[in-house]
């Protein structure tokens, strides 16, 4: 099955976000990065970055997790967009 250009771009964005959030993470085969942005009840935005690894019994196990909100959120997205633009 071919992966679309958009899917490849989104995958690269998620992986880059994970590399930025978890500087000690070295991607391995079977790792999967997740990037989610949402809003808390009062309308404040947040972003979650997670990395999952294939588990021994199937499925995935979360090995890294970071939630950004407020000034940390602004800083994270600024660094991510700046690095992608370089």
Please describe what this structure looks like.
The chain has 86 residues and is of the alpha+beta class. 8% of the residues are buried. The longest helix has 17 residues, at 5-21. Helix 1 (5-21) crosses helix 2. The termini are far apart. A three-stranded antiparallel beta sheet has the order 1-2-3, covered by helices on one side. It has a single domain (5-85), classed as Nuclear Transport Factor 2, Chain: A. It has two helices and three strands.
Give the % helix. 25-40%
Poorly predicted runs of 5 or more residues: none
Give the overall form: globular
CATH class bucket: Alpha Beta
Domains (count): 1
Using the coordinates shown, work out and report the CATH topology: Nuclear Transport Factor 2, Chain: A
The tally of beta strands, per DSSP, is 3
Strand/helix succession? HEEEH
Number of helices: 2
CATH architecture type? Roll
Q: Main sheet?
A: 3 strands, antiparallel
What structural class do the secondary elements suggest?
alpha+beta
* Integer-rounded radius of gyration: 14 Å
Tell me the strand percentage band.
25-35%
The end-to-end distance, rounded to whole angstroms, is: 31 Å
| Mean pLDDT, all residues | 92
Which key terms come to mind for this protein?
86 residues; Nuclear Transport Factor 2, Chain: A
Indicate the topology.
Blueprint (H helix, E strand, L loop, with lengths): L4 H17 L10 E8 L5 E10 L5 E10 L1 H15 L1
Antiparallel strand pairs: 1-2, 2-3
């Amino acid at each position: 099955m071919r992966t679309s250009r958009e899917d490849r771009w989104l995958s690269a964005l998620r992986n880059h976000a994970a590399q930025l959030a978890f500087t000690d993470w070295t991607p391995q085969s079977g790792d999967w990065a997740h990037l989610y942005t949402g809003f808390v009840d009062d309308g404040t935005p947040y972003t979650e970055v997670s990395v999952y690894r294939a588990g021994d019994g199937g499925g995935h196990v979360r090995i890294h997790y970071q939630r950004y909100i407020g000034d940390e959120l602004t800083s994270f997205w600024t660094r991510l967009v700046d690095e992608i633009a370089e």
